[in-house]
Amino acid sequence: MSSLENARDEIRHHRRLITSIVFRRPVILIMTSYMLLYVLTEAFGLGAELSLAVNALKCIGWTAYSLFLFYFIMPPLAYYFSIKRWPIFYVNVIINFIASITGAILSEYVDIHLGVASGWGFPRFIQIVTVAFLVYTALIYIIDTSYEQLIIDHFREVQRDVMLFRFPPRTPAVLEKVPFEKRGSLLRIEADGHYCTIVTSRGKHIVRQSMMSCIEDIDESQGILIHRSIWMANSEISRLVYHNGNPRVIDRNGSIYPVSRKKANEVKEIAARHGSSSK
Length: 279
Description:
LytTR family transcriptional regulator; LytTR_DNA-bd_dom; membrane; 7 helices; 58% helix; 9 strands; transmembrane helix; five-stranded antiparallel sheet; DNA binding
């Protein structure tokens, strides 16, 4: 793949991320539209001279301009500056400067043609640039923090996938004692004296073995000993409820099991990830 194609792919990637941030956070559109509308009308005494329809059109215009900026201008600049390894502060200054100057020119042009302004007024132009710069700085800050969080989340997902690929969870030794036709995903282990019932996605099997020896080589990320006599896979924990003040677990099939009070908080966290919890 050529360097030009690589650059295009990177720009598309930046564009997808920025677009997802903009549409995930409506505050960006709201800030762009109404803060700039307020500045361009009330703050400069133009509100009384413009009809509601014109104000609405200007609001739509600023929103469209902002979307154009975030979709077509920011991705190439973000890619270029990432190659140059420039600090994000300088990136923001340049992007905000471009946005503010261009937006102010467009605003002055529209006002002149609407008859609101008689000509190009330098002080008013500077006011618009200054306010627009501050607004876009706030917007870019929101995007930067969201963008950084997306990168972190994406890195964690990739890292987790790589770790699972390179170091898949080891098959518990207790499953080797289960007949082949009943082997499947380990769901639950129930102890009764010197015997344990191994419950898999394909059936049940009883072994003469203590609970601790059954779970000693099971990875902690796969499940938890919710009670001294019950081990349960994390994926099976659906809800944590309380009955007469005593914690109980409801699995995905709706069955109820006792939970040790010492394990209640840990089980609650697992339930929050895989199901829900309530009192």
